[in-house]
Amino acid sequence: MLFKTFTLKTFINFFLLIASLSMSAQEFQKEIFIWKTDTLPYNILVPVSFSKSVVDTSEYILGNNKYPLIIFLHGSGERGTDNEIQIKHINDLFTDSANLTKYPAFVVAPQCPLGKRWVESDWKVSKHIMPENPSIPLELTMELINEISRKYPIDSRRIYVTGLSMGGFGTWDLVCRYPGKFAAAIPVCGGGDTGKAGVLKSTPLWVFHGSDDKVVKVNLSRDMVNAVKKHGGIIKYTEYKGVGHDSWLKAYKEKELLEWLFKQTL
């Protein structure tokens, strides 16, 4: 009896170890999105419970096994074509074995090319005005979201967007330009158009900024938060005292971040 008990415990521990190692090894994969004559490199992380070898995803859809989609927009320093550097600030967060288990989701990180921006406007202004049209990289990102939603079992009620610095501007732009598309947004040290705040009254937001940011003025976040609040919006604001233009280092380590995000739905 003791031998059988020991054997059972050993088997269970071995199984848990293998499962843990499998989840720890989950990594972002490089892909290229082609739309008309343009291309957009992107990284994608698939949930551990989803097999990319499954061609027919009807079993997931019929079983209501749909997953959230998280879009991450990087900062200006990660622009390029290597299709790798853009995930450096979020890789640890989303590939953490505990998060892979507790918060299964598709995570997509497109890479903006050099010389382009998610939002074609000056970052150092005191007041941001949203351009009439989206930038080419942001337009491609929306088309990529549509493609990912067709290709994989994505829950359309749980599409989220977050971004830092240049990507913070992109995050504000997306939720303002496409109201009702995103279930929640997390803009980090970015800026939005206060004149568009009214369309965000039903979009849960958690905004981050450093009080001593010398690159993107902190009042851009403060003003957006106040404008959304005036319209009765659902918004949280975390300002890190004494922090400069790297507030994402703290923001993406907030213990309640993913818990808060995954509670949001359209």
- Roughly how many Å is the radius of gyration? 20 Å
Low-confidence stretches: 1-6, 14-24, 53-63
Give average pLDDT, whole number: 88
The CATH homologous superfamily name equals Alpha/Beta hydrolase fold, catalytic domain
State the major sheet: 8 strands, mixed
What is the name of the CATH architecture? Answer: 3-Layer(aba) Sandwich
Number of domains: 1
Strand order within the widest beta sheet:
1-2-4-3-5-6-7-8
Report, as a whole number of angstroms, the end-to-end distance: 53 Å
Order of helices and strands: HEEHEHHEHEHEEHEHH
Question: What would your notes on this structure say?
Answer:
- There is one protein chain.
- The chain contains 9 helices and 8 strands.
- It has 266 residues and is α/β, with parallel strands linked by helices.
- The protein has one domain: Alpha/Beta hydrolase fold, catalytic domain (Rossmann fold), CATH 3.40.50.
- The protein starts with a helix and ends with a helix.
